[in-house]
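Quick start: read one record
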Amino acid sequence: MTDPNRTEPKGLDPFAAPGNSAPVAAEGSARRGWERDLLEKLAFAALNEQRAARRWKIGLRLAWLLLIVAVIGLGISRNATTAAASAKPHTAMVEVKGEIADGADASAEAIVTAMKNAFEDSGAKAVVLLINSPGGSPVQAGIVADEIKRMRQRYKKPVYAVVEESCTSAAYYIASATDKIFVDKASLVGSIGVLIDGFGFTGIMNRVGVERRLIISGENKGFLDPFSPMNDQQRAHAQQMIDQIHEQFIGVVKAGRGDRLKAQTPGLFSGLFWTGEQAVELGLADQLGSIDYVAREVVKAEEVVDYTRHENVAERLVRRFGATLADSAVGALSRGASTSVR
C-alpha cells in the first residue's frame, strides 16, 4: 500500500521510460546520415573514374586513328614522290639484303616483284641489284636468276649487280645471272658450294643414358634426325643430293660469266670466297664500282630510284590489327564450336 504522505524526489517521473531515448535517437540518425554521405561519395568517385577511363579510351582510339591517317598520308606522299621521280630517266635499284629465304625480306617473291616494277617503268634505263647477302636458299636464288634472264630478254634492259659487303653462295648465284658485277675491293665474293648442316647428339645420349624413341614408317625417314645415328648409305645419299645442286650452281655461274670466268683456277668452285679485288682478277666480278658509280658512269642516269618493297608503318599496323582480329575471330569460333559440342 502506498503511503499517501510519500513524496518522490524532485525531477523523477515514476511513469517515464528508463533512460533518455532522445539523445540515442539523435545519435542513430547522425550515424545513418554519415554512412549515406560516404556511400554517395564512393558512388560518385566510381562514376568519375569510369568517365575518366572512357575518355582515355576514346582519346587513345582517336590518337591511333590520327596516327594511321598520318602514316597513310606519308605513304601516299612517298608514292607520289617516287612516281614523279620515275617519270624521268633514272637508274632502278632493287636491294637484295640479308638471308635469301622464303618469307624473308630477300625472298624470291619480294625481289621478283620489285624487279618487275622496275623493268616495266619506262623511265628506268637499267636495273641494278644492290646485294649485301651471305646467301641462303638455292631454290629462291634459282627463281630470281631465271626471272632476271626472262625479264632482260623481254624488256631489253641491262641488269647489273653491285656488291656491298658480301655476295656469297646463293647471293652470287643471283649475281651471276646479271650482265655485269661491280664490287668494292674489300667485298666478299664467291663461296660457290652447297651445304647441309646439323648436329649429332647420339654419343652424348649414350653416355648420359638417354634413349631416343623415334617411330618411323620407312627405314630412312629420320636419317637427318640429330638424335639418331646416320649410316654410310644415308650419308652417301645426302652427299649425292648436294653434289647435284652444286653442279647446277656451277652451271649457272659458267653460263652467266662465260669467257670472263677463269674456270680452271684451283678451288674456284670449292666453296672458297675472295675479296672484291681478287674476284675481278678471277673473273667472278667485272670491275670495282658503287651504286652511284654505276648510275653515273655506266647507266648514264645519275638519279637512283629504289623499287625495293619496304614494309611501312601502316602495313605493319594493318598486319598487326588484322592478326588481332583474326585471332579474336578464331577464338570466337572455337568457343562457339565448344559450346555446340557440349
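The chain has nine helices and eight strands.
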